């Protein structure tokens, strides 16, 4: 790929439910269990119908979590699975991020997702006493195990770090090194997102935003830690100063992630219109190019149905 290309995925996010049994104090997404009606398949179908022929390829299925031991877990999982099947049947490419899954759940979702994701966030256990005090899903070992299982199952995987939630720089290097180690074993990580904490209206955490001026240095170092085939992604709506966005690209970031009408995780930070983003990048010689939610070197890991879906985008 030429040096001056930055990619993004034309995406739309479908949320099966906002309810989540964790309470991360920086969260701007969740509602209490039982307080968010689940999306129905009929509602999803009508959303997806509206999206057809709009240039969108990725359907990001992003869900709050139902506790693994809850009697509602099976129905929650089935809804996510059915949404993937529906999106595929309607010609889209599903990518699910629904928190930690059991091995059999992950195994089933592999059959209906071109890729999957889960933020590692940070590995330092000290966050269990602060921002993750009420978030059992954020146990570092649980997150690492998810990455390992994805590798064992040959699922093209996106992960990343959340920055500015109480970690030190060394914590970041350790988390990146852990991702690099797992990738060296399984070769399954396609992107690492470096996501600056950006305060929103719903969160209880009273903390400053991660200073975007620190991002370029962090990206540079991450580029040295991560194997070259892993792309570094930054969310452009969270780096609101054009010059710092360009500095992030100069430092080695090459992907802007899924761009759609709403960033469900950071609803207070809308994405720029695509043409506006293109203009900003063009002034510095960068070309913004769409990509699929699965990178070409992973096509051989996809089943026949998904290869067909990918081929419909004229690229397999
Ligand atoms: S950040 Fe994710 S896991 Fe934490 S409370 Fe929000 S939805 Fe749940």
UniProtKB/TrEMBL annotation:
Name listed for the protein in its UniProt record: 7,8-didemethyl-8-hydroxy-5-deazariboflavin synthase
Cofactor(s) in the UniProt record: [4Fe-4S] cluster
Pathway the protein takes part in: Cofactor biosynthesis; coenzyme F0 biosynthesis
InterPro entries (alphabetical): Aldolase_TIM, CofG_family, Elp3/MiaA/NifB-like_rSAM, F420, rSAM, rSAM_sf
Pfam families referenced in this protein's UniProt entry, alphabetically: Radical_SAM
Source species taxonomy: Bacteria, Bacillati, Cyanobacteriota, Cyanophyceae, Nostocales
Main enzyme class: lyase
Residue stretches making up the Radical SAM core domain: 6-237
Assembly mode: The FO synthase complex consists of two subunits, CofG and CofH.
Species in which this protein is naturally found: Okeanomitos corallinicola TIOX110
